[in-house]
Amino acid sequence: MMEPLNRDEIVALLERLGGDDDADVLAAARALHIAIADAGTAWADLLVPEDAGDTGAAADTDVATVATDLDTVAEADVPAGKAGRDAGALALIDKLLARPGVTEAFRREMEGYSHDIAEGAFEDADRRYLGALHKRLSAKG
Predict the structure, then answer these.
(1) Are residues 75 and 59 in the same domain?
(2) More confident residue, 81 or 22
(3) Could you tell me the pTM of the whole model?
(4) The domain containing residue 14 runs over which residues?
(5) Is 44:109 a contact under the CB 8 Å cutoff?
(6) Does residue 88 contact residue 67 with C-beta atoms inside 8 Å?
(7) What pLDDT score does 4 carry?
(8) pLDDT of 129 higher than 60
(9) Does 17 have pLDDT greater than 60?
(10) Are 71 and 111 contained in the same domain?
(11) Does position 16 have pLDDT exceeding 60, yes or no?
């Protein structure tokens, strides 16, 4: 059975890679490799390619804008500010979950993002990832 990726666990392991203790760094690297393999995915599937979007202005790009560009949310339907960005993110999540062939692991990941939005823990990096994921999956058809 494939194990879903736990974002917080992956981030914690990545942060350990810069540590001073070589044994701990190696252990974190191996744990990362195992987590990715157990999830049945590859690094290339997790990392957004350079040509997937302009990362220089990414901090100024919110999901509502990305969603509008992708014809998923009309700009007039999205209120301004954080509430608008959250509404745009939720609209993208709904669009992604409506795609055929959605795996249970993917569904849980998207539900986790919905929970993060409800808890106020959804960050700009999460928005950029969600927008890039939607763009990449939309390009695949």
Answers:
(1) yes
(2) 22
(3) 0.46
(4) 7-44
(5) no
(6) yes
(7) 75
(8) yes
(9) yes
(10) yes
(11) yes
Give me the long-range contacts of 84-89 (CB less than 8 A, separation at least 24).
Answer: 85/127, 86/117, 86/122, 88/62, 88/63, 88/64, 88/127, 89/63, 89/113, 89/117, 89/122, 89/126, 89/127, 89/130
Question: Tokens at residue 50, please?
Answer: 């350079």
pLDDT tens digits along 83-122: 778 888 888 888 888 888 888 888 898 999 999 999 988 8
Dump the DSSP string for 16-79.
Answer: HTT-S-HHHHHHHHHHHHHHHHHTT--HHHHSPPGGGS-STTGGG--HHHHHHHTTSS-GGGS-
Residues 6+ away with beta carbon under 8 Å from 19: 25, 28
Do 30 and 54 lie in a common domain?
no
Same domain for 34 and 55: no
Q: Which tokens in the block code for residue 57?
A: 């202005």
